[in-house]
Amino acid sequence: MEKILIVGANGSTGKRIIEILNNSQSFEPVAMIRKKEQKPVFDDMDVESVLADLEQDDFSSALKGVDKVIFAAGSGGHTGPDKTTAVDEEGAIKIIDASLKAGVKKFVMLSAMGADEPSSHKELEHYLKAKAEADKYLRNSGLNYTIVRPGALTDDLGMGKVKLAEKVERGEISRDDVAFLLVMSLADPLAKNKTFEAIEGDEPIKSALIEISQG
């Protein structure tokens, strides 16, 4: 069973990822949390947690024994530029470096649609720039990676059907479906070293991932 560190485990999407992994026969989740007060949530789920902050510099204890990483942290588009840079760019880069040093086998990044053209979205420009820099750093890091860039996230019930491509029209996708996409991307052959956008669609997640893997 592979041990998966979820960065941003306490967020809305992170908690969904934890639930999926916790019911998996292949993966064991480890929740990375910023505050001790968050630990009981994961204790109740019988999920291991590690205390670490993206604004710190040492992640060796958080990555001990970890096989793969899902980065689902995000400051959100409404956070100021300084905090966004600290979490979405610098924090991501620190954990990418630490993952490389720790011998992590795959790094799955939750990015954002529009990260390839931040200036086209003025209200989110600082957020998308930070995401773009982190994505670029991951692609050049030498780690095996998958970068998922979803459209606008909703709390609707996931239908398990998506549209994936390097570029798709702007649209929405449920956090449930994004969580499943990220978890399924952990499989070694799927979406290896691929960056793609995702919105709700008509194709089952698994077959859509297989298709994008072969593209």
From TrEMBL:
Residues 8-189 form the NAD(P)-binding domain. CDD domains: SDR_a5 (cd05243). Transmembrane segments: none annotated. Pfam families: NAD_binding_10 (PF13460). InterPro entries: NAD(P)-bd_dom, NAD(P)-bd_dom_sf. This is Sugar epimerase YhfK.
